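To: structure subgroup
Subject: Chain for Friday's discussion

All,

I'm putting the inputs and outputs inline so they're searchable in the archive.
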Amino acid sequence: MIISHDLLEKTCKNMIETILFCLDHATKGTIYRIGPMPELRSVRITSGIRDEITGSIHWGLPETSDYNPPGKTWEQYRDRPGHVLEAMGWCVERQMSWTADNPYEDLRSVRKQLIGEAEDCHHMEPVLVKKVDLYGEDAFRLEYPVAWNGTPIWKDTEYVVVAVIKIHFRPNTIRRGDRSTKVIKKLSHVLGTEMFSNHLRETLFQAREELTNQRFQSCNALAHELRNTLVKLSFIFSAINAEISYLREQWEEQLRKSVAGLEDKAAILGRLNMLILGRMHELNGRADMAQLSTELMSDQEELAQLPLLPEQSEQWLQHKILWKWEHLLSQSDVWRQEEKEIHELLERLKRALWIGTDPSLAERMLHIPEDIRVLWPKVVYTEFSPERIPLLDDILRLLEHPQLTIPHKRQTLKILSSLKALAETIPDVEKRANKILFSLKNGNTADDGEVPPGDGGLEAAAGNPR
């Protein structure tokens, strides 16, 4: 039986209290738990002794007892040749009560058998539960305990023993089959029913917890797969930004054709690399400076080729280029003659990164219609993200303009139209995925079709089960 110790102890105390209340001549009650199959360990759960003066009940276990936790196994208390006979073995094996109405003739008194002393008057009653109720379909596959001769017990009965009640009485106040023993037998049925009810409650609770954990694990596994899928779909945004960067390059190309003397970041960066190469041989074997110079040239060459947004280019300049130049110039005199030119080039580079966003320069591109001059820089100097899907409508409107002339215009329009269709499905996919995960995690669905804030979803799926 699956019953928590606290609940079982409370149930047993209530039963002992009821029996002692019903039987004035009863002095003490003890209930033992029996199980599981086939071990049939007998463990004293609790004992209650009536105070003869106040009538109150004192609870607790004896300081020394073979049946105190961890108790005795079936093999220890069953009947077997050459060993003392125990009333516990009788009650469990035969599923019958044992009444010691005459302590001097109690054939199963352990004390009397060992040292010849009589015990007290008591009655022991097994608590029975039907096998089919307790084990369901598994009742036909039970492993039964065996008697000393190897014969299985309980195989041909409807019941199993789940507990044993032992009630002590004043001397000469009970007889086998009298009203007291009948009351205890009746109440043993009540205890069996209550224990079975508690077992069902605990079993259902554990099953619900297991189902919740399984659902939560499934939710996490599904969330992991959905996250991976959405991550894979995120290439769409990278592809869209790549197409936008191409349009940005075309815009800056048009600016350089229309406005003479504009700074070109690629030319500036090329000149900076030439200055490094021209003096590297003078480092005289300083490996650290040579390594830094090589890294700086690589970073500058990469910046020249990357079609980054101005903000991104500035970050690149700050984190990968400027500090390296400062270190080279402060730790070596090799570029002392070119130091002024280097500083001027770096300042010009900073300005060159933003030429595409200067509206005064755009106004000088008179060969381009005004609506294109306004729309083009607006859309190409924006980082595309899932929250900016409407930006694609402006980009497609730009590409569909008949007076926009750029290489691969039709191909770019076709690619962006396809990517737009895919990008528009991602928020809906994520929304539906969150709804599915919310339903799976919580066992229901949101009434309004939305996932409540703070509840399940791709971000919350890894939280604790409810």
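Points worth raising on Friday:
Residues 179-233 form the longest helix (55 residues).
Residues 234-259+368-466 form one domain.

D.
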